[in-house]
Design goal:
With 355 residues, this protein is an all-alpha fold. The chain is 80% helix and 0% strand. The longest helix is centred in the middle third of the chain and has 37 residues, at 174-210.
């Protein structure tokens, strides 16, 4: 993991100009983006360490500590942000440094836990690569990796389409990009919640599936989907009824900015409930050791469907095209989820004794 983080950091540093333009940076914001990006690269190893070992800590039976360490990093970040930006007058550099300090805080807490784990004790041999371990873990890891890559590709294409079609609309070049940045951040918060619920159930699901307790696994799936549905319903109500209020949390605007904000929330996130169930089912399949199905569900929504829709819909309806890409992708991918649920019912049937 350390080697991967170093390689990734180096690649991002030497290609930072192209990456920022690729994600839709414009002449108006490229300087701010560059200042933030250069400093945030320093925190990549700590970010990767914190994310990876949070899963280990949860699997070791300490989900509370994993949550506490993550929250500690967030609290440190939130406290240091206004101090670095306004008191020390460090601007975007200050925001990046505050983020890095928060990531380091989480990483330090995780290091402490690893030397006080419940079910294992680290030895020198544990830091050596094992072919048998890689063979079992890589398929599941690649599934998550490709899922994240597909989300990144989708966001990249979306930003570039907004930059291309924005000047042709009444909203101009900056409004669509700024608004969708807010929408994506809020969407990311919801995704973090649903992923947290689903990922938190993975150790329990995997244990019961391995033990042949299929009745418990089905009950766990129903409970998880029920919780995800509640999150999706609450999010839908908020996005449909209070889009302007949510936008104003990120800064008060008026006129065309508010108009596009309301449209974006109400259209782009209108099927957030279906998205919650789809992503939760994908993670659940990963817990059952079905990486191909898990990866297929994720790639279907975020890459196979969203990317072509973002590119094609604007040809017919201009700047409004990208807004409809997510709802259409959610509906189609939810149909796939229904077939996966049918497969699950058959997979989790109690095995008949040969006697």
């Amino acid at each position: 993991m350390v080697l991967c983080s170093v390689i990734i950091t180096a690649i991002l540093f030497f290609t930072k100009d192209k990456i920022l333009w690729l994600f839709g940076a414009t002449e108006n914001n490229i300087d701010y983006a560059m200042e933030y990006f250069i400093y945030i690269l320093i925190g990549i190893p700590f970010f990767m360490f914190g994310g990876a070992f949070a899963c280990v800590i949860r699997a070791d039976g300490s989900p509370g500590f994993a949550m506490l360490s993550t929250l500690a990093g967030c609290v440190v970040n939130v406290i240091l942000d206004p101090i670095a930006i306004f008191v020390l007058d460090m601007g975007m550099k200050g925001a990046a440094i505050a983020t890095i300090v928060g990531q380091i805080t989480t990483a330090i807490m995780h290091i402490y836990y690893l030397f006080h784990a419940k079910s294992f004790h680290l030895q020198k041999k544990d830091f050596l690569l094992s072919g048998s371990v890689l063979k079992r873990s890589l398929p599941l890891g690649i599934s998550s990796f490709l899922t994240q890559v597909s989300i990144t590709v989708n966001m990249t294409v979306l930003n570039n389409v907004l930059v291309a079609y924005g000047p042709q609309s009444e909203y101009g070049a900056d409004i669509p990009l700024s608004v969708m940045g807010i929408v994506q951040k809020v969407f990311g918060i919801v995704v973090a919640v649903i992923v947290g619920i689903a990922a938190g159930s993975q150790p329990i699901v995997g244990y019961n599936y391995g033990a042949g307790e299929y009745g418990r696994v089905k009950k766990l799936y129903k409970t998880m989907i029920g919780a995800e549905a509640v999150v999706g319903i609450i999010a839908t109500i908020l996005f449909e009824c209070f889009p302007l209020q949510i936008t104003q949390i990120f800064g008060a605007q008026d006129g065309l900015y508010n108009e596009f904000s309301v449209l974006s929330f109400r259209i782009y996130l209108s099927t957030i409930l279906l998205c919650c169930i789809q992503k939760a089912t994908s993670i659940f399949m990963q817990a059952l050791g079905k990486p191909v199905l898990s990866m297929g569900l994720s790639l279907m929504r975020d890459f196979v469907l969203c990317v072509p829709l973002v590119l094609l819909l604007p040809l017919k309806i201009g700047i409004y095209g990208p807004l409809f890409s997510a709802p259409i992708a959610d509906i189609i991918s939810f149909i796939a989820v229904i077939f996966v649920i049918i497969y699950l019912r058959k997979l989790l049937q109690p095995k008949k004794s040969k006697l």
